[in-house]
Amino acid sequence: MTNRSGPDACPGAVRVHQAADGLLARVRLPGGALSPAGFAALAAAARDLGDGRLDLTSRGNVQLRGLADGVALAARLRDAGLLPSVAHERVRNILASVLSGRDGRGFLDVRPLVAQFDAGLCADPALADLPGRFLFAFDDGRGDVTALRPDLGVLALDAATFALVLAGRDSGVRVAPADAVRVLLDVARTFLAVRGTAWRMAELENPAERLGLSGGTPIAVPHGEFPAPGITAQKDGRTAVTALVPLGRLEPAHLAALTGHEIIATPRRTVVVPDTTAATAAALTAAGLVLDPGSPWHGVTACAGQPGCAKSLTDVRTDARTTARADADGVLVVSGGLPVHWSGCERQCGRPAGRHVAVVATPAGYDVRHPTEDPVIDYVRDGAEIYRRSFATIRAEADLDGLPADVARVAVRMIHACGMVDLVDDLDVAPGAVEAARAALLDGRPVLCDAAMVAAGITRRRLPARNEVICTLGDPRVPDLAARLGTTRSAAALDLWGDRLDSAVVAIGNAPTALFRLLELVAAGAPRPAAVLGIPVGFIGAAESKDALAASDLPHLVVRGRRGGSAMTAAAVNAIAAEDES
């Protein structure tokens, strides 16, 4: 099970995100649907309060950028009926089959269920605590939204039966349409009770079992397609027009052409105008939207890029249109039929799931990355390239602002060892500690480790003076010494360090008792180390031992709380020992 620590940073319409071009707000649209009045209100808000554009998201929601503050936007959304509950505004992530009830393809019309579910969700204060990434879905049987692996949803098997879907898979549980809303709300409440630190249903081991659900034999769920750009005949004789939005951004001309219509925003960054006539298609095309399913714009996406994102190396959206290898529509021809995603940095925000061509900005220019023919073995094989991309990704995703350069370098390598970019939040480094540790190594002082795993993780070639790496835990005297002292072997082993403690670099990455013992020895007059990397892991004593070290006058680096371990500690030593990131 994947556990996530730290707050859920998903933006909303009220809890906005500070971007480089102003505030960013994300407005949830249950089922992707917007009435003519609702769309007009959003378009006016973008024009009056933001940068004049609306961005479509991969969940059928919309974003406004360039806002000065979120208060005026929230007021407009509330007046337009688009903010029924401030407390629930980030959890109304509800997908629905796009043309349900209109094109005659699904088993039943799920639109009424979406409205009922949204009302029930907003009526329960407890459900406001759902993670902002948690995704619901109502699939009328065609498999379009179930293919996106929602956390919790229903998939019609016939007009009278839904399959309950967990993390995109059939749970085996069957639900009548009349009970669907109640069951989904109940399961969502149960998820909150059992989730621990998990954000998504897939992060639970055996979700159905954890949720107390039992049913029949699960079936393979269908994976259907969303409407392709173009015109679809509705069963009532009217027309639904699907338009691809280049790079997922509705420009002012697009907004003007769509005003007055109901629209459905899709996770494919298209918009559907239902219940209309074929004449609408011509108006949308004239405004610059794409109705040709064979257009090279199909499958081309991009992150925000500059100027919207401070981490982006370039304006990827402009580059996607103007690069030298462009066709007549201004799209880079690199894909061979695969989706193409442009990214301004190694984070590759907004990239599509599945095989795609990645066009990634680097300091040296764009790196065009094609998947291999066999997706099973699609991986980077070059070790140096793995390091380069890894460290670039960490520097893009972790908040290193405000850290001294030497501390940031250590943090990057520690994150590389554990995969947790929020580690920075718990990092506590005494002023000058990294510099003191580096000086001690340059002076030939040893590295004293509490565990063999810490010692084994230290890369000897990085040590600047062929420094000795010492772990006394395996010394045959340790068991008797631990018995006499009434402590753990890890703690007792430190008593054998003796004078080698003098100006050494101490790396404790396993046992909290070892860190407590170090503090006791120093307090009793033992030689003082040059610096202590105190990063033990555990539930008993780990946080307390690190707090005690941070409160002492020893130069220290700690990771506050329970997190830690041998890999992080060895990584810290390796970063201090040599400045190159390889």
TrEMBL record:
Residue ranges annotated for the Nitrite/Sulfite reductase ferredoxin-like domain, each copy included: 20-69
Pfam families per record: CbiC (PF02570), NIR_SIR_ferr (PF03460)
Source domain of life: Bacteria
E.C. no: 5.4.99.61
Any one GO molecular function term: precorrin-8X methylmutase activity
Assigned keywords, A-Z: Cobalamin biosynthesis, Iron, Iron-sulfur, Isomerase, Metal-binding
Domain Cobalamin biosynthesis precorrin-8X methylmutase CobH/CbiC, chain residue ranges per copy: 385-577
Pathways per UniProt: Cofactor biosynthesis; adenosylcobalamin biosynthesis
Keyword Ligase among record annotations: no
Gene Ontology biological process: cobalamin biosynthetic process
NCBIfam families: CobG, PRK08285.1
Family to which this protein belongs: Belongs to the CobH/CbiC family.
PANTHER family the record matches: COBALT-PRECORRIN-8 METHYLMUTASE
Protein name per Swiss-Prot or TrEMBL: Precorrin-8X methylmutase
